[in-house]
Design a protein that fits this description.
heterodimer, A: alpha+beta, eight-stranded antiparallel β-sheet, 26% helix, disordered C terminus, B: alpha/beta, TIM Barrel, Arc Repressor Mutant, subunit A, 2 domains, nine-stranded mixed β-sheet, three-stranded antiparallel β-sheet, 16 helices, disordered N terminus
Chain lengths: 608, 420
C-alpha cells in the first residue's frame, strides 16, 4: 500500500504546439522513467495519426518516481488528456482523476481558446493549477504579457508561474518541485469500499479490454471480483499494474494510485469511460459522480466508392468500434450511393479521424456525405423522435416542433479581426453571449450557435476571417426550436437522397443556390442537358443547368495506332459505367461541407 | 437518290505461308467528288509506314516518343530501319502492291534527304511499288529547304504534309513550335517551285490564345494558299503534356469546348465553299487529293509499319514495335524482330473496328454489306444502338447506309464507345 501523502496526480493543459508533449518528455527523462536513448520523441502520442496531427486523441497515463528535494520519494502520475473539443467528456474524466494540473502557455503565443476551455473545466473539477510559461527561450517570448493574460482572462494568480523551456530543459526541476509541494495529495480513504474511476479503455487483441483507472477509495486487488456500476457487469481482475511507461504488473492499487486493469472484458463498450469500479462483495454506495453516456453529435453517411467494398467497410467499422465505443454506425441505403452506413461521431475531428483510419488502415475508398447533427422532432400526433438522417425526416406537414442542438462557442482573437468574425457568427445564426477585452488587443467573444452551422464550414470561414489568428472552443448547450426545413437536391428531376440537408428556412435559398452551383461544376457534361435543382418540399428554389456535351473526338491518326484509339474508347466507356454505379467521389461527398482544406484549418483553430 | 457502289475485295497478304483473307469495309458515296475519288483509290494494295522519331524541339502538347535531333543517332537509326525492312522481308512473304508509303514522325523532314532516298529504295527493292504509288512525307515548315525539296522530288516523294498548325505567331509560341507563321507560305511556295503539287496543310483547332477572329483568319489564310488537302485537328489536351499543366496553372488559356465545336462546324460550312470536300472527320481535300495512305487505316487495309513504336496491321493481327530507341536498335542490329506485341483480332473486334473506323469516313458504311460480311446476328445489336443514335441526331441513315452527322462527328467517341 502506497502512502497517499506521497502521491500526486496531475495533467497538463495546453494549446496545440505550446509544448505539452515536449514537457511530458522532459518529465519522463528527468525522473528516469525513460533514458534518453529509449525516448522516441513525444512518447505520449502513440498513434501515428496523433503524432502527425500533433494532437492527443486518446488519453494515456504514466507513473513517474521522483525523489524530491525534501529527500522523500514521490509517485507522480501524469494523466494525459485528449486535446480536442470533440473529446471534452473524456477530458473531464481524465481531469477528475487528478488533483492538479499544469497550465502550459506559450510565452510568445499567449492564452488560446482551447487552453481557456480546458482550464475552466479543470477549475470546475476543483483542480489546483500551476501556470507554466513555456518557450521562454524564444526571441519573441513576452512573459509579462502572458502573465497578464493568465490573470485577466483566466483569473489565476500568475505571480508564481514557472518560467520554462521544455525544449531546452529549463524549469523542469521547478515544475517537479511545484507538483510535489503545490498540488494536494489524494483525499480518499483506505478502508472504504473500493471506488475506482475508469478514465480510459482500449481493446488489445491479446488481452481484451485494458482499462486505465484511478482509485478513489479502498484497494483494487488482483483476483478481486469487481462490478462496473453503470453497466452492472461483473468481472474478475486478472492483471493490474502501472505504466512506467512500460506495463509493470503489481498486486494492488490503492487510494490515489493510477494504473491499468485487465479483467476478461471483451468489448470497450462494456467499460465505459467515467464508470466506477467497485468490489462485488462490498460495493460502494455511491458511484463516482459525472458519468455520462457518450452521445454522438455529428453524423455523416459513409459509402464505399466501390460497392464491392461494402463488406470490408462493415468489418472495418466493427474493428474500429472495438477500440472506440464513442462512434456509432448503422446500415443505410442511398438511392444514389448504394449500400453504406450512417455514422455518428463526437465531433468533426473525430469524424475525420475515423474516416482517415478507415481509408488508411483498412485501404478503403469512401464517399462521405455532408455532416449533419441530431434534431429533435415532435410530430403533430405528439410523438417525439430524434433524427440524424435527413432522409428519415417526416413530411413537413406532420412536424409540430423542430429543435436543433446549440453550442456555446468561445472565440479568442485579436481585435482587428473582430469585425469579420462577428459578421460570420451573425451569418451563422449566432446569438452573442459575451464580448470582453481580455488584454489591450485580445478579445474573447462568446456566441451561442446552432451546431449544424458549425459542422458546415465554420472552421474554414473563421480561419479566413481571422487570417488564422483566432482560436475556437465550444461545448454543447442544449436544444432550441427553430424554423428548419429539408433541402433536397434534384439531378435530372431525381432527388439525390445523399445530398439532402436540413437547414434554417432563411438559409434555404442561398444554401440551395450555392449547392446547385457547386454541383454544376462537378457533374461532367452529358449527352443531354442535365438540370440541377434545389427544392424545399415541392418548391424549386434554385436551378442550374449542365449544358450538353459538345465535343468528344479523337482527331488524329497517329501513325495508324488503332489499338490506342480502342483503349481510349474502352476507358471512356468504363468511366461512364462507373458514373452509372454512383456519382464520382468528389460529387456527393464533400459538397458543401468542411472540404479537403478543413484538416489543416481545424488543427490551427481547435487544437490540442 | 445517291448511288451506292460496291467494293468488296479480297486482298491477300501471304505471311509465311498463311493466307489471310479479310473483309474490307465497303464504301458508299454521298458526294460525287468523293465518290469519284474513291473509285480511283480503292486499289487492293497495302501501305508502308516509316517512323522518323526526331524533332528539333518538342511541342508542348505532344506526348509521343520523340528523340532530340542528333546526326549520328539519325544515321544509325536510318540504317536500322533499312535492316528492319530487310529482316521483315526475309521472314515474311508479302504479295500485292505497296501503293502508299508514308514517312511520319516526329519530323521526317529533319533527317538528310539521302536517308529518305535510301529507305525508299529499300522499299522498292523489297515491295512491288507501282508507278502511281502515293509517297507522303511529313515536314515542318521551318525544315524545308530548296535542296531538300529537290531531293525529295528526285527520290520519288509525291506528297508533302506540312505541319503548319496555325498562322498565328502567339499560338505558335504558346505551343513551342520551332517555325514562324510566315515560313508556312514560304515552304509551300518552295515545294511548289520544286514540282510538288499534292500538299497537305495541317491546322489545329483550339490552340492556346486562339479566338474566333484568329481562327477565321487561319481558315482564310489556308484557303488563300490553296493546298489541295487540309487537315483540321482539334487539340487534345493530354494530362501528360506540358501544355496541360501550363493551362491548368493559368499560363495559357485555351478556347472552351463550345467555341471549338462552333468553329469546327463553321469549318465544315466554309471549306466546301472553296472546293474542299470533307472525306473524314478531320480531313478535307480537293477532288482526287484524299490521302490514300490514311484512308487505309479507316478502311482496315494492311499497313506495315517500320521504325520505333510503329504500328502494323496485316489484315488479321495488329502489332507494334518497341517504342524505346535503345531496345529497338539493339534488337534490329542483332537481327531480331523489334515487334513488341502482336494480337490477332477476333471477329467481334473486327466488327467493332470496322464500325468505329469506317464511320469516321464521310462516306460512312453500308449496313447490308456489313451484315453480309459479319452475319446478320452479329450486327443486329449495333443496328439497334445506331437507330437510337439516329433519333439523337448523332448518325443519319439513308436506306441501308449510315454516317455520322456533323454533331455526331464532334461526339464521335460517344458513338464509337458502343463498339468496344
Amino acid at each position: 500500500m502506497k502512502d497517499k501523502g506521497l502521491i500526486r496526480n496531475f495533467s497538463i493543459i495546453a494549446h496545440i504546439d505550446h509544448g505539452k508533449s515536449t514537457l511530458a518528455d522532459r518529465l519522463l527523462e528527468r525522473t528516469g522513467a525513460l533514458t534518453k536513448r529509449e525516448m522516441s520523441d513525444q512518447v505520449l502520442d502513440a498513434m501515428d495519426l496523433e503524432r502527425e496531427r500533433g494532437i492527443t486523441i486518446k488519453a494515456h497515463s504514466v507513473r513517474l518516481n521522483y525523489r524530491a528535494r525534501d529527500g522523500r520519494d514521490y509517485i507522480l502520475n501524469l494523466i494525459d488528456t485528449p486535446g480536442h473539443v470533440d473529446f471534452s467528456y473524456e477530458v473531464s474524466r481524465s481531469l477528475s482523476a487528478c488533483e492538479g494540473a499544469l497550465l502550459v502557455v506559450d510565452a510568445s503565443q499567449g492564452v488560446e481558446a482551447q487552453t481557456l476551455a480546458n482550464t475552466y473545466l479543470a477549475l470546475d473539477h476543483h483542480l489546483e493549477i500551476i501556470p507554466v510559461i513555456n518557450k521562454i527561450d524564444l526571441p519573441s517570448a513576452d512573459v509579462g504579457r502572458v502573465k497578464d493574460q493568465i490573470e485577466n482572462i483566466i483569473g489565476l494568480d500568475a505571480s508564481d508561474a514557472i518560467l520554462a523551456s521544455a525544449k531546452e530543459g529549463i524549469g523542469t526541476d521547478e515544475i517537479l518541485e511545484a507538483i510535489v509541494h503545490r498540488l494536494p495529495p489524494p483525499k480518499g480513504e483506505y478502508d472504504k469500499p473500493l471506488k475506482s474511476l475508469i478514465f480510459d479503455s482500449w481493446f488489445d487483441p491479446y488481452r481484451g479490454v485494458i482499462i486505465l483507472t484511478r482509485v478513489i477509495d479502498g484497494t483494487l486487488r488482483k483476483g478481486m471480483k469487481i462490478r462496473l456500476l453503470a453497466t452492472q457487469q461483473s468481472f474478475t481482475v486478472e492483471q493490474i499494474g502501472v505504466i512506467t511507461p512500460k506495463f509493470t504488473e503489481v498486486d494492488e492499487l490503492s487510494v490515489g494510485e493510477v494504473g491499468f486493469m485487465v479483467g476478461g472484458i471483451r468489448r470497450v463498450a462494456d467499460s465505459k469511460i467515467g464508470d466506477t469500479i467497485t468490489e462485488e462483495a462490498r460495493p460502494t454506495s455511491e458511484p463516482f459522480p459525472g458519468f455520462q453516456e457518450i452521445k454522438p453529435m455529428v453524423f455523416s453517411g459513409l459509402y464505399p466508392t466501390d460497392s464491392a467494398q461494402y463488406e470490408d467497410l462493415r468489418d472495418a467499422l466493427e474493428k474500429l468500434q472495438l477500440n472506440d465505443s464513442s462512434f456509432f454506425y448503422e446500415p443505410d441505403t442511398s438511392g444514389a450511393l448504394g449500400f453504406g452506413f450512417r455514422c455518428g461521431f463526437l465531433g468533426l475531428l473525430h469524424m475525420e479521424i475515423v474516416q482517415e483510419r478507415l481509408e488508411r488502415e483498412f485501404n478503403l475508398s469512401l464517399i462521405t456525405t455532408a455532416p449533419g447533427v441530431r434534431y429533435r422532432i415532435t410530430t403533430n400526433k405528439g410523438k417525439a423522435m430524434e433524427i440524424h438522417n435527413p432522409s428519415k425526416l417526416p413530411p413537413a406537414n406532420e412536424i409540430e416542433k423542430f429543435e436543433e442542438p446549440l453550442i456555446t462557442a468561445m472565440i479568442l482573437t485579436n481585435d482587428e479581426f473582430v469585425g469579420p468574425i462577428l459578421k460570420l457568427a451573425e451569418e451563422k445564426r449566432g446569438v452573442q453571449k459575451g464580448f470582453e477585452y481580455v488584454s489591450s488587443n485580445r478579445v474573447l467573444i462568446t456566441y451561442e450557435l446552432p451546431l449544424n452551422e458549425i459542422v458546415l464550414d465554420f472552421y474554414d470561414r473563421l480561419k479566413s476571417a481571422s487570417r488564422g489568428y483566432a482560436s475556437l472552443d465550444y461545448h454543447f448547450s442544449g436544444y432550441k426550436e427553430s424554423p428548419l426545413v429539408k433541402l433536397d437536391i434534384l439531378v435530372a428531376g431525381e432527388p439525390v437522397d445523399a445530398l439532402s440537408l436540413i437547414v434554417h428556412r432563411d438559409n434555404a435559398q442561398p444554401r440551395g443556390r450555392a449547392l446547385v452551383e457547386k454541383m454544376k461544376e462537378m457533374i461532367p457534361r452529358q449527352m443531354f442537358e442535365v438540370a440541377i435543382q434545389a427544392a424545399m418540399g415541392s418548391k424549386i428554389i434554385a436551378r442550374e443547368v449542365v449544358r450538353p456535351l459538345r465535343k468528344n473526338v479523337i482527331a488524329k491518326c497517329y501513325g495508324g495506332d488503332i489499338t490506342r484509339k480502342r483503349k481510349l474508347l474502352e476507358k471512356q466507356k468504363e468511366g461512364k459505367k462507373r458514373m452509372k454505379r454512383g456519382p464520382p467521389r468528389a460529387l456527393p461527398g464533400r459538397v458543401d461541407h468542411v472540404g479537403t482544406g478543413s484538416r489543416g484549418s481545424q488543427k490551427a483553430l481547435t487544437p490540442g | 437518290m445517291h448511288r451506292v457502289t460496291e467494293h468488296k475485295e479480297d486482298v491477300s497478304v501471304v505471311l509465311r505461308g498463311s493466307v489471310a483473307k479479310f473483309f474490307v469495309g465497303a464504301v458508299i458515296h454521298w458526294d460525287r467528288s468523293v465518290r469519284e475519288a474513291m473509285d480511283s483509290i480503292n486499289t487492293p494494295g497495302f501501305g508502308v509506314y516509316i517512323h522518323i522519331p526526331f524533332c528539333r524541339t518538342k511541342c508542348n502538347y505532344c506526348t509521343f516518343v520523340i528523340k532530340p535531333w542528333r546526326k549520328d543517332l539519325a544515321e544509325r537509326y536510318s540504317r536500322a530501319v533499312i535492316q528492319e525492312l530487310d529482316l521483315f522481308l526475309s521472314e515474311n512473304e508479302v504479295s500485292g502492291v505497296a501503293d502508299t508509303i508514308y514517312f511520319g514522325g516526329g519530323t521526317p523532314s529533319l533527317v538528310p534527304a539521302e536517308h529518305i532516298a535510301a529507305l525508299l529504295s529499300t522499299c522498292r527493292r523489297h515491295f512491288d511499288v507501282p508507278q502511281n504509288c502515293e509517297i507522303s512525307l511529313e515536314a515542318n515548315p521551318g525544315t524545308v529547304t530548296a535542296e531538300k525539296a529537290a531531293a525529295y522530288r528526285g527520290c520519288g516523294i509525291t506528297r508533302i504534309s506540312l505541319g503548319a498548325q496555325t498562322f498565328d505567331e502567339r499560338s505558335l509560341q504558346a505551343i513551342g513550335r520551332d517555325h514562324t507563321a510566315g515560313q508556312v507560305a514560304t515552304s509551300l511556295a518552295l515545294l511548289r517551285e520544286k514540282g510538288f503539287e499534292n500538299i497537305n496543310v495541317d491546322l489545329i483547332l483550339g490552340l492556346p490564345e486562339q479566338d474566333e477572329i484568329q481562327w477565321a483568319g487561319n481558315l482564310e489564310m489556308v484557303t488563300q494558299l490553296e493546298p489541295p488537302h487540309i487537315s483540321v485537328y482539334m487539340l487534345e489536351l493530354e494530362p501528360k503534356s506540358p501544355l496541360y499543366h501550363l493551362v491548368a496553372r493559368g499560363v495559357h488559356r485555351v478556347p472552351d469546348e463550345d467555341a471549338v465545336s462552333d468553329w469546327y462546324l463553321g469549318a465544315l460550312d466554309h471549306l466546301p465553299g472553296h472546293g474542299y470536300a470533307q472525306y473524314e472527320i478531320s480531313n478535307f481535300a480537293l477532288p482526287g487529293y484524299e490521302c490514300r495512305h490514311n484512308l487505309k487505316y479507316w478502311q482496315r487495309r494492311p499497313v506495315f509499319g517500320f521504325g520505333i513504336g510503329s504500328h502494323s496491321f496485316d489484315g488479321r493481327a495488329r502489332y507494334a514495335n518497341l517504342a524505346g530507341m535503345n531496345a529497338y536498335l539493339s534488337r534490329v542490329e542483332a537481327g531480331i524482330s523489334p515487334v513488341e506485341w502482336r494480337r490477332v483480332l477476333d471477329e467481334k473486334e473486327e466488327l467493332g473496328e470496322t464500325l468505329f473506323l469506317g464511320l469516321r469516313l464521310r462516306s460512312g458504311l453500308n449496313w447490308e454489306e456489313l451484315s453480309e460480311g459479319f452475319g446478320a446476328e452479329q450486327v443486329a445489336e449495333y443496328e439497334k444502338t445506331l437507330r437510337s443514335m439516329s433519333n439523337d441526331g448523332l448518325v443519319e441513315w439513308r436506306d441501308s447506309s449510315i454516317r455520322l452527322t456533323p454533331r455526331g462527328m464532334l461526339l464521335s467517341n460517344e458513338v464509337f464507345q458502343a463498339f468496344v
